[in-house]
Specification:
The protein is mostly beta strands and 189 residues long. The chain has helices at residues 2-16, 29-32, and strands at 19-25, 36-40, 44-53, 56-61, 64-67, 73-82, 87-96, 99-109, 112-119, 121-126, 132-135, 141-146, 149-154, 158-161, 169-172, 177-181, 184-188. The protein has one domain.
């Protein structure tokens, strides 16, 4: 009996920290060019619609509009969802002159979209021509919920922090991650 109680005392606290992995919803380029609807939970649906206004690309994400800074900036997005948690993250990569300058983070929850902030990172990887370049971090991103915070980590050898800015630096992908909780988005080095 003492062994069982000891075992439960050790194991139960581990289960109190709920851990959820957010899966990437695979979309091809063609489906990203037209309005898209994603069912999150039994009653919620996330709607994303691309458009242009005065030559500037925009994405309507639920009740928010994500706008490119200028006509040269290209927006691309990925959706990370967890149907058990009934939440989804939409990350919008911002690219200018084939160089990624970071991505915006949005949280979809209870039929509302919240702007969570900017992840000022790019993947330092080879582009189509074989040159090292500042590419979108979206293919290399994973999101996990641990307890009451979300951890955004990168699965690439090198990333660029603050691309094309004065404080720009190249780091190992495992040396940096972001957390998001009730206090907001935090960078951790």
């Amino acid at each position: 009996m003492k062994k069982i109680l000891f075992f439960l005392a050790v194991i139960l606290p581990l289960f109190s920290y709920a851990q959820y992995s957010f899966g990437k919803i695979e979309l091809n380029k063609e489906s990203k060019q037209s309005p898209f609807c994603c069912k999150i939970g039994s009653k919620d649906s996330l709607h994303i619609a691309p458009c242009k206004q005065n030559g500037v690309q925009q994405l309507s994400i639920g009740n928010l509009i994500c706008k490119a800074e200028n006509q040269d900036e290209h927006l691309d997005y990925e959706i990370f969802a967890n149907h058990k948690d009934k939440k989804a993250f939409v990350l919008v990569s911002r690219t200018t002159d084939n160089l990624c300058v970071g991505c915006s983070l949005y949280l979809f929850e209870n039929r509302n979209v919240k702007d969570c902030g900017l992840l000022p990172v790019a993947a330092y990887t080879k582009d189509q021509s074989g040159r090292m370049n500042y590419n979108s971090i979206l293919p290399h991103l994973s999101i996990v919920k641990v307890s009451n915070r979300y951890i955004l980590s990168f699965e690439t050898p090198l990333i660029v922090l603050f691309p094309m800015q004065e404080q720009e630096e190249i780091l190992s992908g495992r040396d940096i991650f972001f957390t998001f909780d009730k206090d907001g988005l935090q960078m951790n080095k």
